[in-house]
Design brief:
The complex is a heterodimer of chains A (about 170) and B (about 375). Chain A is mainly alpha-helical. Helices cover about 75% and strands about 5% of the residues of chain A. Chain A is built from 5 helices and 2 strands; from the N terminus they run αααββαα. A two-stranded antiparallel ribbon of chain A has the order 1-2. In chain A, α3 packs antiparallel against α4 (about 120-155). Chain B has about 375 residues and is an alpha+beta fold. Chain B has helices at about 10-35, 45-55, 150-155, 170-180, 180-190, 245-255, 325-340, 355-360; strands at about 70-80, 95-105, 120-125, 135-140, 205, 210, 220-225, 260-265, 285-295, 320. In chain B, strands 1, 2, 3, 4, 5, 6, 7, 8, 9 and 10 form a 10-stranded antiparallel beta sheet that branches. In chain B, α2 (about 45-55) packs across α7 (about 325-340). The chains are: A mainly alpha (about 170), B alpha+beta (about 375). At the A-B interface, α1, α2 and α4 of A face α1, α2 and α7 of B.
Chain lengths: ~170, ~375
């Protein structure tokens, strides 16, 4: 149960973050400030949830894929899942590091502020800013792939993989 | 469980694959919409900064606006009077370090100094154990446009024509016809007394912000930096020295630390938030404290170069208002900052070099 709750909570947050992120770099309206003010706290929330989730995964390992899944798909599933985990950690950390290197205060809300995790440095900022964009597109691509694969299991193969994450019962 | 895909009929399989395709397409379309790809007319950071580059040329490593500048450092002695209206740490009485930057508005980093150019002062107040406050002010009494759409339209109308090298007067006329508020603001701006230099100039934040006190009460506020250095009117342009106004600033600072009083004007409900509209003269003014700038440094080595003077970097106790211009500035500045920091290694020396600063200016 906690595994599924964490999954769906993070699914909503990550999809929202991808949309907020891409939206806020493409507007000069008053929405810009609103989106930026959501982006920072949600990013940190995802980082905290990712830590909890990884810990939970060690305590409650995910159910094995059905034996009928071919080895190539098995490998793809594993690689994409660990890529998703990696990005859940990397993207908030890159964002935090990027704001640190840019010399911005890292305000979550009101007077709640995070300390910088990197020195104020233009080169570091430029690299991390670039990495944040590349990471976002990669994240989006893997999320879409993940959704398509889950639906493929649920609608075509009907092998219980999707239902183990929705109802908690394989099939 | 077993793979049951073989049990699906060919038709059912196609329908289900189609459904998966539709979900993938839907999510991608949503993402593309958020990113502005489906609305090419939307004004974005990229269109605004491209507009600056079309108007001024691309100057690698420089700010896309307020390109020609000089760093300053000093401190702020807060009177504590602002604490009546705002809970910001920086407005409690005491001393706070300040980094500043003097500049000309416009995207040309090597434009010769002239009295007709708009001057700016950007400040970063950074309490060692509190939240920082950044502000970027100009020496106009009003902002000439009401919103970012008008700002962009005016910028596009003033892009020099490729053949004549000058803006197309018809486009400017069309802009003015569509924006009577700019014509009205320009009439006020045209009547201002232009000071002789950077050090005796008054810089206005123009935008409307809000002061929020510890009980959560907020009041609209605008602020200005008012010089202690006495006013004298601008002289004609010195054509011998392309940096004569910066050189005079360097000489003034070498002679005596330069000070400005930070004056907040407290608005009343119903006062306009748009920066092209003035507030009534009788509004309450409070003296927040004095900014002293005693050390000038070229951007080539100075502390202001890697600071984005984003006017929405505000401590708790100061917030943005319904005025949408700060959001637009923040968005556009972030793109300019990203570009120039990426180009940082390739940036040529700034117009005002450290040699100029060390020479003590010309007085």
């Amino acid at each position: 149960m906690p595994s599924r709750l964490l999954h769906w909570l993070m699914a909503v947050l990550i999809l929202a973050m991808l949309a907020i992120g891409i939206g806020m770099v493409a507007t000069v309206s008053s929405r810009y400030l609103t989106l930026v003010s959501w982006h920072r706290p949600i990013g940190i929330a995802i980082l905290v949830l990712a830590v909890i989730r990884l810990w939970n995964r060690f305590l409650n390992p995910a159910p094995a894929l059905p034996a009928s899944v071919p080895p190539a798909q098995r490998l793809a599933a594993m690689a994409s899942q660990w890529l998703l985990y990696g990005l859940m950690f990397a993207m908030p950390l890159i964002g935090w590091g990027m704001l640190s290197a840019a010399g911005y205060p890292i305000v979550l809300f009101g007077s709640l502020q995070l300390p910088p995790i990197l020195p104020h440095d233009p080169y570091l900022f430029a690299c991390l800013r670039e990495a944040h964009t590349v990471g976002a597109f990669l994240f989006f691509a893997v999320v879409v792939l993940h959704i398509a694969a889950a639906l493929f299991h649920g609608l075509i193969r009907r092998d219980g993989v999707l239902s183990s994450m929705t109802t908690g019962r394989p099939g | 469980m077993e793979d049951e895909s073989a049990k699906l009929s060919g038709g059912a399989r196609v329908v289900r694959l189609g459904a998966i395709g539709a979900v993938v397409l839907g999510v991608t379309a949503g993402f593309a919409y958020a990113g502005g790809w489906l609305t090419p007319g939307r004004l974005t950071q990229t269109t605004v900064i491209d507009g600056f580059e079309a108007q001024n040329g691309t100057h690698i490593g420089f700010r896309r606006n307020h390109a020609k500048g000089l760093c300053a450092a000093g401190w702020f002695d807060s009177t504590g009077e602002g604490a009546t209206f705002s809970k910001a740490d920086v407005l409690a009485s005491g001393r706070v370090p300040v980094i500043g930057r003097f500049a000309f508005a416009g995207g040309m980093p090597f434009i010769p100094d002239s009295p007709g150019l708009v001057r700016s002062l950007a400040l970063q107040f950074k309490p060692p154990h509190g939240q920082e406050w950044r502000t970027a002010m100009i020496d106009l009494p009003l902002f000439p446009v009401a919103n970012v759409q008008a700002f962009y339209a005016q910028m596009i109308a003033s892009i020099p024509d490729r053949k004549t090298g000058k803006p197309d007067p018809e486009k400017m006329q069309a802009f003015k016809a569509a924006h009577p508020e700019t014509v009205a603001a320009m009439a006020v701006i045209g009547k201002r007394a232009v000071s002789s230099g950077f050090s005796n100039d008054t810089y206005n934040a123009l935008d409307t912000f809000e002061f929020v006190d510890k009980d959560g009460r907020s009041v609209p506020v605008r602020w200005s930096a008012v010089p202690a250095q006495p006013f004298s009117p601008a002289a004609p342009q010195d054509k011998q020295d392309p940096n004569y106004l910066f050189d005079a600033l360097i000489a003034d600072a070498a002679h005596h630390p330069l000070t400005w009083k930070m004056i907040a004007t407290i608005g009343q409900p119903g006062d306009p938030v748009s920066p092209d509209l003035p507030w009534p003269e009788d509004r309450q003014h409070i003296d927040l404290g004095t900014v002293t700038l005693d050390k000038l440094t070229s951007e080539d080595v100075g502390p202001c170069t890697d600071i984005n003077f984003d006017p929405t970097v505000l401590p708790a106790g100061i917030s943005t208002s319904a005025d949408a211009i700060p959001s637009a500035r923040s968005a556009a500045y972030s793109r300019s900052f990203m570009l120039r920091e990426k180009e940082r290694a390739a940036k040529p020396p700034s117009a005002v070099t450290e040699t100029d600063v060390l020479a003590g200016g010309k007085s």
